[in-house]
Amino acid sequence: MSISFLFLCLLGLGAFSFLFGRRRIRGLTAMAGVKQHSRDVYHGSFVAVCAVLVPLIILLAWSGLSPLLIDAMLEDFLRRQSPDLSIGEMGVLIAKVKAYFVGSLPEAFANDLIRDGTDYFAALVDNSATARSFVVLLLGLCGAALGLRLLAPRFTARPAVERVFEIVMIVASAIAILTTIGIVLSLIFETLRFFDTVPVMEFLFGLSWSPQIAIREDQVGGSGSFGAIPLFAGTMMITFIAMLVAVPIGLMSAVYLSEYANPKLRGIAKPGIEILAGIPTVVYGFFAALMVAPFLRDSGAEIGLTLSSESALAAGLVMGIMIIPFISSLSDDVINAVPQTLRDGAAALGATQSETIRQVVLPAALPGIVSAILLAMSRAIGETMIVVMAAGVAANLTANPFESVTTVTVQIVMLLVGDQEFDSAKTLAAFALGLVLFFITLLLNVLALYVVNRFKEQYD
Question: What is the model's pTM?
Fold first, then answer.
């Protein structure tokens, strides 16, 4: 029985337990002639939780641990058959066994050892799936029976159900926090390994980026330069151009939609603007590479300017269009949240609508607007596809937006493309860049929180 089908069986068992539990508690209450402690829905939910919660945990744990155990048993079986294999050869052999099992390895490339290993592996997989289905369904039925046994008119079903969901939410929160901690620690540890090879000052303040490490001592052009200033400069340039496009357009569109547009027009324009946020970034990249970049190059040639086919200007313009919804939608919500009494008070003092917007509404909404801008800036800093397709991958240290540049995220992708060993400075440099990018976005978020906390009580 597959995992998906087993999961659907658990959901069906939970739904049946919920309905049967509600029906049973009604019958028990009618027979006892007393008032229930909790409503029917909580008794049904209690039975459903008893039927589903533990089997679901077992199913998730089994799905995560059984492949590791099966691989260990397969390796032990193959090691008994061929004790002279090295660790690398054993890994290749296990990969061939799995490939032959799924049918992607042709029969001509399979030998007796691979066939025997495949038969053993298939038996392990089948036995694991059978045992998993039996254990999960048995636990589900036993849990449902236990829940029904505990039902009684005065049973405190509501506190029990709420406690279970409280624990589930605590676990979900803990998983999110632990995931964040894990990401940060993985970046820090690999970055420290990188700084054992490359000095910190060279990385942070070096002016040349060419992460090519020589494989042989006599190899030419593989000395490696890890100065990240060109990457930081390219990232900031493209982000600055994008914000020059997005902030005025996004903010003015938010003001118009919230203060001037009628409800019918607002109902059409606001979703239309927010559609931009749902367009895949690769589509923006195609638009930048096929439309915007050639248009800028040809237009510049007509007035005597030399523009590269891949330029920071093209990437920044398209990226600015992409992040307009972030500023427009969030700013619109913040402006609408400004109390109407402030507008009425300004009108009573004789202020025009434009004066009210400039001197009352926008200052009152300033913390939210700044937060929207910083959020959009973080989105722009982390963009990759548009930069790859419109600005290129050349690490040029230049202040000319007409030339090709690259960003931190693009170089992270380039460093990790293909088969890489995580023991060279070239690969570990991606973690150092990721850590720097993490701290930049963290500082932007901290700045946004500071602005909100600094000004939020001024107009409460």
Answer: 0.70
